[in-house]
Design a protein that fits this description.
The protein has 69 residues and is of the alpha+beta class. It has one domain. The chain is 52% helix and 13% strand. It contains two helices and two strands, in the order E-E-H-H. A two-stranded antiparallel ribbon has the order 1-2. It is elongated and about 65 Å long.
Length: 69
Amino acid sequence: MQHALKNTKPKYLIDENGNKKAVVIGFKEYKYLIDSIEDFEDTIDLLKAEKEAISFTPYEEFRKTWLKA
């Protein structure tokens, strides 16, 4: 669904002066936007955590320790 918005034909709600005030899109496009925003927020959180990390444990080492528990 990489190009879910490529062929989107949004409809606009306009006020009495002809100014666009809202957009109506299909549920599939809406879901794609929400999922994309959530992925973006997760990426930002991960980058922030990496930047602020005091120490780092490589994944394979963490996995071995975690599997022993």
